[in-house]
Amino acid sequence: MKKQRSTFLFSVLCFGMAFLYIPMVMLVIYSFNYSKIVPVWGGFSTRWYAKLFESEEVWNALTLSLQIAVINATFATLLGTMAGLALVRFGRFRGRTIFSGMISAPLVMPEVITGLSLLMFFIALQQLVGWPEKRGMTTITIAHITFSLAYVAVIIQSRLSGMSQSLEEAAQDLGAKPFRVMFDITLPLLTPGMMAGWLLAFTLSLDDLVIASFVKGPGSDTLPILIYSRVRLGLRPDINALATIIIATVAVGVLIAGWIMIRQYKKQKADQQMAAS
Amino acid sequence: MTIFGFGWEIMTNETNYQDRQWLDPDAEPFIQLRGVTKQFGSFTAVKGVDLDIYKGELFSLLGGSGCGKTTLLRMLAGFETPTSGTIYIDGMAMNDVPPYERPVNMMFQSYALFPHMTVESNVAYGLKRDGVKKSEIAERVDAMLSMVELSDFAKRKPHQLSGGQRQRVALARALVKRPKVLLLDEPLVALDKRLREQTQFELMNIQDKLGVTFIVVTHDQEEAMTLSTRIAVMDQGQFMQIGTPTEIYEYPETKLIANFIGSVNMFEGRVVSNDDDHMLVDSVETACRFELGAVAKAEKGAKLWVAVRPEKISMSTTAPQSVGTNQIKGTVHDIGYLGNMSIYRIQLDQNGSSEGGSLVEVTVPNQVRPKDGKHAIDWDDEVYLSWHPESSVALFR
Ligand SMILES: Nc1ncnc2c1ncn2[C@@H]1O[C@H](COP(=O)(O)OP(=O)(O)O)[C@@H](O)[C@H]1O
Ligand SMILES: [Mg+2]
Question: Which of B35, B57, B107, B112 gives B184 a disulfide partner, CB atoms 3.0 to 4.6 angstroms apart?
Answer without folding.
Answer: B107
